[in-house]
């Protein structure tokens, strides 16, 4: 397929597709003023309890579907149907481009890129290092291409924000020639979220991003931490793949690499079986059978010790990264919680900061308990380091980058 061309000079809308491992978030935005025309979420894809929630923001009632949605292709077709029902269909001449979140860009992609056959082939080649997400991203791209083959499709890469890491943070301590030959290094992910949140924190503090050092904790089903100094990422918890770092919904995060060799020798597991174990059967779901923090908290309140241990392991890892990135930055102005768990789970925020008073960190119990969709500080006035909750807006970040690329 050749590079598509559309009436991007007059069209002002961008559809953003964020295809995750088990979900699709989408937003239709008018880039003249950043207004959202429709937003939606398809979650629990592949389960019997799949759910699609669609909200037209230019008038109209929120609609919800609760039925099995087998895969990402079915999810995206359902999204297209909901948009069409509101007169916002993908056939509109007002649509300038579709922006796709793509998890792994490797070394080749460090900026938003119009998707061609060659670009798609490179994204596909990177599937082994992003096995949960790049396949979903590719499905989203191909489905969107089939629906609007004439429209520019833009990939915005999770890895881009982390390209500012110094070499001593990005490199692993393995043989340099081997690492270079196979492009083994820390790439980092959730970059659009870390970029957006770190800038919003600076705004909350009334400062320019260049003046602020922030630890960002993106806590969703996938989870990552970053150390951001003056608006530039200097370290991040995810590495060559999204497997490294924090305890996640189904991913282990940090483990001794020799665990792989041990399982191969002692348990007779194949490489593929170990890959599935660490990416899909570990983390919270491996520890207690649930990867939904709301359910884990319910089980803890009911006295479930297995859920309590999973929660404690999750928090212990968070604290280790807060402390490590405090040391990396030297001076910390704020710690920011974002994404599904970070924005909504007050017990996680409270537990992650508890005991770190000597580092200047504390949360106000009353402020922490308030549920809000607004960016806000939850630390007491006396705290030396601000603690913030910032709802991430990866979709707006992707839309802005997409529109800037395709619009003259």
Please give a structural write-up.
The chain is an alpha/beta fold and 408 residues long. Helices cover 37% and strands 19% of the residues. The chain contains 15 helices and 14 strands. The longest helix has 25 residues, at 305-329. It starts with 12 loop residues before the first strand and ends with a helix. The model is unreliable at 1-6 (pLDDT under 50).
The strand line-up of the biggest sheet is 5-4-3-2-1-6-8-7
The best one-word shape is globular
Beta-strand content bin: 15-25%
What is the C-alpha radius of gyration, as a whole number of Å? 21 Å
How many helical elements?
Answer: 15
Structural class designation: alpha/beta
Mean pLDDT, all residues: 92
Distance between the termini: 23 Å
Model regions low in confidence, pLDDT < 50 over at least 5 residues: 1-6
Total count of strands: 14
Element-by-element helix/strand order: EEEEEHEEHHEHHHEEEHHHHHEHHHEEH
Helix proportion: 25-40%
**Largest sheet, described in full?**
8 strands, mixed
